[in-house]
Amino acid sequence: MPCYRLDGLTPVIHPTAYVHPSAVLIGDVIIGPHCYVGPLASLRGDFGRIVLEEGANLQDTCVMHGFPGGDTVIERNGHVGHGAVLHGCRVGEDALVGMNAVVMDGAYIAPRCIVAATAFVKAGFQCPEQSLVVGSPAQAKRTLSDQEIAWKQRGTAEYQLLAKRCMAALVECPPLTEVQALRPRMGDSGLRPKAEQGA
């Protein structure tokens, strides 16, 4: 993967984390255990520190960056959807930031919150725990139900499993030129690592 030391600071990736080979890591980046970083994500620790805590995921084409001296953090089991931008903010434990949302400097998404897709979270924003955050500019609209939190947690668990699957079975290859007869579907038991079949 494109991984770059800058001013003596080298990115750190825990051995149990999966980072896609096309993701770019620069400088002061720390990726904890059981994390997943998707294709084409950009983690630029060239000004401030970038941190993914245990079990967090950062999906395809996401950007993490911040101002000098600050930290941009996804806390434990945080979940960040495709195309989101996190700049100098903190995503709390077990929170979710939806696809193409933007979270700005000094904002804090409290634990177990869900930020809706395409929301724009202004600098310095704060919200109560377990809130649904929507809009542009974003506002905390209501308290999330336990069922909604459980739905989020199931999705995060799938990405933690995906990190294991990719480490065990993702292989770069040339494409086929035609579809095979009786092509299996992703998730068929024969396609999953044996340790995960029946999980």
TrEMBL record:
Gene3D superfamilies: Hexapeptide repeat proteins
SUPFAM superfamilies hit by this protein: Trimeric LpxA-like enzymes
UniProt KW keywords: Hydrolase
E.C. number(s) listed in UniProt: 3.1.2.-
Species name: Pseudomonas urmiensis
Name of protein: Phenylacetic acid degradation protein PaaY
Family matches, as InterPro entries: Hexapep (IPR001451), PaaY (IPR011974), Transf_Hexapept/Carb_Anhydrase (IPR050484), Trimer_LpxA-like_sf (IPR011004)
One term of GO molecular function: hydrolase activity
Encoding gene per record: paaY
